[in-house]
């Protein structure tokens, strides 16, 4: 089995673009992970749901999508999307992400999110998204997701009541955010990760 070229790599995972060819593996992993994801998120679990999802991300208009693959064997570990990208004076995007059940709790998504942050904050002329800020809106009971952003240096900015319609109801979400400056201040310089510099 062959996979697309990695856009960026870390020690254990790499980021790949979302493509239509990934549909069978992505949807199988989503079905295997229903118990892990519910009631927080509902990624496409059928090819009919996946095709428009992949097309939206491939369109590039205001969004960027990344598949997270384990470097050892290429298994699909999760996904990270940057949605609602606005440039100009705002230069912000909203994160959406999920680990698949076999990869949960192994630190792979933390590594993947570090790669996405580097790409999001890199200048566009270097292949990055050229953003200044990323936001993550998380339901207060989603402890795994809260731990992930806390571990990446995001700050809590407040609570948005009835913010997103999830699982049939309007749900409260905590607003977490990180800026390019915060990432630069929090992380010592290290070896570059491959793919976009």
Description:
The chain has helices spanning 23-32, 34-37, 47-59, 108-121, 143-151, 180-186, and strands at residues 8-9, 13-17, 64-70, 76-86, 92-99, 133-138, 155-166, 169-179. With 197 residues, it is of the alpha+beta class. It has one domain: 3-Layer(aba) Sandwich (Aminopeptidase). An eight-stranded mixed sheet has the order 1-2-3-4-5-6-8-7, sandwiched between helices. The longest helix is centred in the middle third of the chain and has 14 residues, at 108-121. 32% of the residues are buried.
Question: Topology of this structure?
Answer:
Layout lengths: L7 E2 L3 E5 L5 H10 L1 H4 L9 H13 L4 E7 L5 E11 L5 E8 L8 H14 L11 E6 L4 H9 L3 E12 L2 E11 H7 L11
Parallel strand pairs: 5-6
Antiparallel strand pairs: 1-2, 2-3, 3-4, 4-5, 6-8, 7-8
Number of strands: 8
- Reading the helices and strands in chain order gives EEHHHEEEHEHEEH
Q: Figure out the total of helices.
A: 6
Terminal residue distance: 27 Å
Strand content: 25-35%
Spatial strand sequence of the major β-sheet: 1-2-3-4-5-6-8-7
Mean pLDDT: 90
* Rg of Cα set: 16 Å
Characterize the overall form: globular
Spans where pLDDT lies below 50 across 5 or more residues: 187-197
CATH class: Alpha Beta
User: What is the CATH architecture assignment?
Assistant: 3-Layer(aba) Sandwich
Query: What proportion of the residues is helical, as a percent range?
Result: 25-40%
CATH homologous superfamily designation: Gcn5-related N-acetyltransferase (GNAT)
Question: Main β-sheet, in a few words?
Answer: 8 strands, mixed
**Helix- and strand-based class?**
alpha+beta
- Annotated CATH topology: Aminopeptidase
């Amino acid at each position: 089995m062959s996979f697309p070229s990695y856009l960026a790599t870390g020690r254990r995972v790499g980021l790949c673009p979302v493509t239509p060819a990934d549909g069978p593996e992505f949807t199988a992993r989503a079905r295997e992970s229903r118990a892990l994801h519910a009631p927080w998120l509902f990624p496409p679990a059928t090819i009919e749901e996946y095709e428009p999802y992949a097309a939206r991300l491939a369109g590039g208009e205001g969004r960027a999508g990344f598949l997270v693959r384990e470097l050892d064997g290429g298994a699909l570990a999760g996904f990270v999307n940057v949605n609602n990208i606005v440039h100009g004076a705002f230069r912000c995007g909203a994160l959406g992400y999920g680990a698949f059940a076999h990869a949960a709790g192994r630190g792979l998504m933390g590594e993947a999110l570090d790669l996405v942050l580097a790409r999001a904050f890199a200048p566009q002329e270097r292949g990055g998204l050229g953003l200044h800020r990323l936001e993550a809106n998380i339901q207060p009971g989603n402890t795994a997701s809260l731990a992930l952003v806390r571990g990446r240096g995001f700050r809590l900015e407040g609570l948005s009541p009835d913010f997103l319609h999830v699982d049939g109801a309007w749900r409260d979400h905590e607003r977490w955010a990180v800026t390019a400056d915060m990432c630069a201040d929090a992380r010592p310089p290290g070896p570059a990760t491959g793919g976009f510099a």
